[in-house]
Write a structure and sequence with these properties.
Elements (H helix, E strand, L loop, with lengths): L1 H18 L3 H12 L9 E3 L4 E3 L4 E2 L4 E3 L4 E3 L4 E4 L4 E2 L4 E3 L5 E4 L4 E2 L4 E3 L1 E3 L13 E3 L1 E4 L4 E2 L4 E2 L3 E3 L4 E2 L4 E2 L7 E4 L4 E5 L2 H6 L4
Parallel strand pairs: 1-4, 2-5, 3-6, 4-7, 5-8, 6-9, 7-10, 8-11, 9-14, 10-15, 11-16, 14-17, 15-18, 16-19, 18-20
Antiparallel strand pairs: 12-13, 20-21
């Protein structure tokens, strides 16, 4: 247990130091030096200051782009991405606490989003919330999805193929394919698919 924790902390330190390297050369060095730490990874862009925790539980598809100051976290969890994922600055993908996040191909995640596959437990009144642990779940994001800036995606949610999540939305339930959702909590605002719009689905 102690050895595992020490290894994890040393890995975080190693990733942090690599994240300090500037310029295009720093990007190349990170791609070469970080690749062996992931469960699976081929070609990717990793910006400056990216936080990586438990990269051995993370599988990156080809041509992923992770911008500056993002966090990829999978302590006791699993994070898997498809090809051509683009995560913009400051976003957090957190599958820790036995959670699971699966992301399809050609997905865009805007700046400062939070995708978190576990919630705090809070049922007991005699124990502080911080001591009640987490309730893990899963998040599935389909192909060709655009999640705009400052969104929150909660556990046990599936976002269907081709969906758009408007800026600032909080997604607490499944998002149908090819829908455009927004608000707190998010709801269907319109459809990208004209056939669905003509049937009045989601109204």
């Amino acid at each position: 247990m102690l050895a595992s924790r020490l290894f994890g902390e040393l890995t975080e330190l190693y990733c942090w130091l690599l994240g300090l390297l500037p310029t295009a050369l720093g990007v190349k060095i990170r791609q070469f030096a970080l690749r062996p730490l992931f469960r699976q990874a081929t070609t990717f862009y990793m910006g400056k200051g990216v936080e990586l925790r438990a990269p051995g539980n993370i599988s990156l598809g080809p041509n992923n782009s992770i911008a500056d100051r993002c966090s990829l976290i999978a302590i006791d969890g699993e994070l898997t991405t498809g090809s051509n994922l683009a995560v913009n600055i400051g976003s957090i993908l957190d599958a820790s606490g036995n959670g699971s996040i699966q992301i399809g191909n050609d997905v865009l995640i805007g700046p400062y989003c939070v995708v978190r596959s576990a919630d705090h437990r809070f049922a007991r009144l005699d124990v502080p919330i911080r001591n009640q642990g987490h309730q893990p779940g899963s998040i599935v994001i389909g192909n060709d999805v655009w999640i705009s800036s400052h969104c929150v995606i909660t556990k046990d949610v599936t976002i269907g193929d081709g969906a758009v999540v408007g800026a600032g939305a909080v997604v607490t339930k499944d998002v149908p394919p090819y829908s455009v959702v927004g608000g707190v909590p998010a709801r269907v605002l319109k459809w990208r698919d004209p056939e669905m719009a003509s049937r009045g689905e989601g109204k």
